[in-house]
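Tip: read the tokens left to right.
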């Protein structure tokens, strides 16, 4: 990615979070990025293409952070705990990215093409689900449901932690959160 392209995406991220996707004009993004409108449209033919490019960049970065090091862990429970912990950490430490993704995923722009970006994460959950069920660590559920249950739990947990940030820095509380999560997916 070129420097000007990154400047434009960074400006867009900031402005979309400040004024909303619909409430942000491309001219404002160009101005914030320190480029002309022509330069912005050289890299992104339309505002929609800019929005999708930003989502793709942010979401891929998030998936990389969530899955980092997980293939090195053979114990399925430990692997799931690491994924959940890294997912929460990613959301808590990258406020702008998290806020933009939530805004995007609840907008008219979110479609099948956008959902495909999560496929790498969904595929990893399918592998873990099959192994966990086979090892009798996870309750049987379709792999895509396992992903959605986990994602819903993480969204709820992060929402709570954003309102109560002291809890995020409390190791015992964070362990209790993982225990709570395991009650919804683990084999009793």
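Filled-in amino acids:
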């Amino acid at each position: 990615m070129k420097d000007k392209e990154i400047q434009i995406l960074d400006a867009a991220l900031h402005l979309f979070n400040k004024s909303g996707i619909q409430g942000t004009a491309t001219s404002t993004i160009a101005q914030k990025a320190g480029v002309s409108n022509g330069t912005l449209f050289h890299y992104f033919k339309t505002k929609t293409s800019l929005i999708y490019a930003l989502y793709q960049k942010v979401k891929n970065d998030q998936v990389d952070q969530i899955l980092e090091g997980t293939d090195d862990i053979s114990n399925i429970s430990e692997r799931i705990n690491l994924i959940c912990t890294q997912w929460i950490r990613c959301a808590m430490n990258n406020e702008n990215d998290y806020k933009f993704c939530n805004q995007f995923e609840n907008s008219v722009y979110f479609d099948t093409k956008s959902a495909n970006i999560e496929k790498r994460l969904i595929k990893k959950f399918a592998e873990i689900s099959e192994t966990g069920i086979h090892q009798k660590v996870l309750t049987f559920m379709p792999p895509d449901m396992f992903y959605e249950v986990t994602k819903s739990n993480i969204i709820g947990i992060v929402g709570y932690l954003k309102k109560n940030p002291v809890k995020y820095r409390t190791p015992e509380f964070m362990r209790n959160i993982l225990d709570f999560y395991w009650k919804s997916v683990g084999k009793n």
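The radius of gyration is 19 Å. Residues 62 and 94 are 9 Å apart (CA to CA).
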